[in-house]
Amino acid sequence: MGTNTYDVVVIGAGPVGENVADRVVQGGLSVAIVERELVGGECSYWACMPTKALLRSGAALRAARQVPGAREAVKGDLDVAAVLERRDSFASNWKDDGQASWLEQVGVPLYRGHGRISSARVVEVSGKDGSVTTLTARHAVVVSTGSGALVPDVEGLRQAKPWTSREAVATGEVPGHLAIIGGGVVASEMATAFAGLGASVTMLARDGVLPMAEPFAGEYVVESLRESGVSVHLGAEAASVKRTDDGAVCITLTNGEQVEADELLVAIGRTPNTQDIGLDAVGLTPGAWLTVDDTMRVVGEDGALFDDGWLYAAGDVNRRVLLTHQGKYQARAVGDVIVARAKNETVEQGRWGRHVATSDERAVPQVVFTEPELASVGLTAAAAEAAGLRIRVVDYDLAATAGSSLQAEGYRGRARMVVDEDRKVIVGFTLVGPGVAELLHAATIAVVGEVPIDRLWHAVPAFPTVSEVWLRLLEAYGR
To answer: Which segments constitute the FAD/NAD(P)-binding domain (predicted)?
Structure first.
């Protein structure tokens, strides 16, 4: 058994943990990071990067087929083997040498093994060889262990060994028929990807498709999925699942109907990776989400600061926003605030302060890489009304912009801005259409910056681009 002391100990070396460690080092403190799997975490190997690699080839092919001249040059369908090979490269072939090397370069010691909190500010790392190393933190322990796929308690489901997002993303073969339980982001993106790769896809979307987005967004995606051959069953719920002797999967729905497929993907949500990290040793509940304040310090059920504030939780484990970019945003705030507190410097924890994650509340950007793409930031109209805001909703047909007609023949899309009428600022923005992901950051700046509507008139969109939709929305608002 070895013992080492650092200013900060981080459990979990995904993008969140890496960013916490980097900010701590930049602030002049020492930090160690613990990882039981691959440095780089879920995003690098089983989520953001490889999933978008799976989707991109199909999107590029569809885009070419929507432009006369390019359409005639396209012959054949996707080369599935080439797509999977490209996917493998973006997952670094599931090796973390490069990211582990980066930690070494920035001066962050990596402890490979399973990290568990054994007492206040103490983490024990169990290596695969049976060794145990004790890490003691002078100032803080940060939990950034992420989340895993949630598998519901459906009769026979676990015994049928379904795919989760990990198996779907890393598969070496495209099944002839893929069934998907779920209608959220992962379900919608994987339905898009596998349909493009030639699979027959059935979606069982009990709560609808992309139910957290503006309703029109889900409608666009459902229409497109069905046009691509995906069988979308809205309101369908699995009652039981069975893996047959020949390896197929049979799903019996609550209405008695049956769906048979070669593989089944379960994509209905996430669960925190906190089951076995020693929370019980310090009086917290194993397997639970960790509640935090705006500086990501763990608080108890009563909202009071846990212990004396040495424990932080950043990323998925705090359930504020389960998105990589928001986790990294939290990580930057966490690293900086730990340094500030360690050095007795001023902590800027007011709204939009340097040491808080204010954006988590009402300015979260997200892109869903379906066909068409969905890009949104801030509140939906329903969420804004629920928050008690007096709003005005303005919609515009993206196909009516000059830029869209140049980008694709038969372009279909829609934009919506939600305006807080009392402050005259945009609090929500949604775009649906081909290639809209790259339009999102302008909306994010408008929402975060709380730019007055009157000032936005002076932000002139270049012609002829799809961004001209900003002018059209403002014109419609001004009527």
So the answer is: 6-328
Distances in Å between the Cα of 174 and the Cα atoms of 22, 61, 85 are 38, 18, 13
Please give the model's pTM, rounded to 2 decimal places. Answer: 0.94
> What digits encode the pLDDT tens for the residues 211-258?
999 999 999 999 999 999 999 999 999 999 999 999 999 999 999 999
CA-CA distance, 52 to 46, in Å (whole number)?
10
DSSP letters for 22-80: HHHHHTT--EEEEESS-TTHHHHHTSHHHHHHHHHHHHHHHHHHTSTTHHHH--S---H
User: What is the three-class DSSP state of 473?
Assistant: helix
Q: In the chain, which stretches have pLDDT less than 70?
A: 1, 479
| Cis omega (within 30 of 0) for bond into 464 | yes
Closest CA to 336 of 10, 106, 6, 27: 27
Q: How far apart are CA 404 and CA 467, in angstroms?
A: 9
DSSP-derived 3-state class of residue 177? strand
Say whether 252 sits in a helix, a strand or coil. strand
427 with 378: CB under 8 angstroms?
yes
Cis peptide before 372 (omega within 30 of 0): yes
Q: 50 is written with which tokens?
A: 């490889």
How high is the pLDDT of residue 85? Answer: 97
Residue of 304, 306, 303, 298 lying closest to 274 (CA atoms): 298
Q: Are 141 and 7 in contact (CB under 8 A)?
A: no
Longest dimension (CA), the chain: 73
The pLDDT, as a whole number, for residue 1 is: 63
* Type and span of the H or E element at 216: helix 215-227
